[in-house]
Amino acid sequence: MTLAHGHAVRRGNVIYLACATAFVAVIWVTFRGSWPPDLSAVYFGALSYAEGDHHLIYLSPEMFFGGSASDAWSARAAALGPEGALALPYVYAPIWAAVLAPVAAHLDPVRFFDVALLVHAVLCAAGVGLAYRIAGPSMSLTRWSLLSFGVLLVASPVFISFWLNQPQIFVTFLILLAFERYKSGALIAAGIILGFAAALKLAPAALALIFVLDRAWKPLCVSVGTGLALLGISLLVAGPDLHYAFLLQLQKAGNFLIVTPLNYGAEALFPAVGGMFDQPPLSLSETAGYAIYASSAWVGVAGLVCYLIVAGMLFVAGGSLVARLMALWAALILFGPLGWSHYLIGPLLLLPAFLTGRTVLPALLALGLVSSPLTALHATTGLPVVVPIACGVSAILLLIGLGLRGGGGSQGASIYAGQN
Fold it and tell me: Domain for residue 167, yes or no?
């Protein structure tokens, strides 16, 4: 390593750490002390487990969406939080309520949320470094850091993620860590981490399709084994009754479709333009800005077929790991159930790999379509809900296209620190 290269390495590391520190500080100052509705479900699920009120954990409204999980949780939220505080339904495996029960029992909700906020901010900043390692030495760490943290500060899905203090941030970090380990050749670690992510939220399991495309059977088997092991531990810890209630909760959530400006899934676009349902919504709240429809099994089947088509195209096209991960991750959001905008935080962390060369213009367009200024314009001008949904869907289609082109990053099996 030359002296000049050594200086470049240190400069890149310093700039990355400076940007990461500034990002964490901005997130902390902006959202500290808030009441995030999504994380409220985790807190009250854990608190109910700690207090022995297991029957409360998987209660939910009649159509699942649209309010607090139960009168009991609503009353606790009103007593412990600000006026209008929600406690949304819990949709995670019982084991995580059991794991977090001691924490929830010793912390009031706002302190719990603040601790989670700080952890999420640090993990998101760390995700920038992981995404850089996945992409490979396609650009300097200095440039990657400036681009990445710029994307994070501009993109609406990132703002929404922290406003909700969404556990998806933690899951995103685990996915990036799994594929960083995969690219580095640590196949067992990659499988364990991805299996753990899938035990938190089921969707990451679909990204194991990359292992199938690569015929990497070791991480695939380890990932499946990790998931099964965690299921066994969960059954031993929480018992079968809560797991049955968990399955019923997932089934109930799948029976309904909520259409909001924050839902970027393809299934939300059809009712928004009136092309899928002839009947009016089952529930409509103009003040809260959402409508609830009955879902349909064929929508899930069609989404699965579309996802597999994207995987088949990747199998033919090949491409770098970052490109394949971008395409499959974006396709999972678009064609999977409930493609919430905050799920995009993962693909957005990979986006700087495409902010170069021939892919820079579509990458910038995708970012612009989900940027905070455009989202604010939608909110303040009272545009129909189909407009922000269509912008989100268009952005995801562009991200899929970027991945299918196979660019963005290096093809090598591993990368090395010090590329700046």
Answer: yes
What is the residue range of 143's domain? 12-251+293-404
Q: How far apart are CA 344 and CA 406, in angstroms?
A: 19
% pLDDT > 90, the chain: 68
Please report the DSSP string for 148-199 in residue order. HHHHHHHBHHHHHHHHTT-THHHHHHHHHHHHHHHHTT-HHHHHHHHHHHHH
Q: What is the pLDDT of residues 158-199, one digit of tens each?
A: 999 999 999 999 999 999 999 999 999 999 999 999 999 999
What's the number of domains the chain is made of?
Answer: 1
Give the pLDDT of residue 338: 81
| Under 8 Å between Cβ of 179 and 211 | no
Give the contacts of 148 (CB within 8 A, at least 6 positions apart): 19, 128, 131, 132, 349, 352
User: Does residue 322 form part of some domain?
Assistant: yes
Within a domain: residue 55?
Answer: yes
* Cβ neighbours for 387, distance < 8 A, ≥ 6 positions apart: 378
Question: Nearest 5°: CA angle at 347, between 346 and 349?
Answer: 65
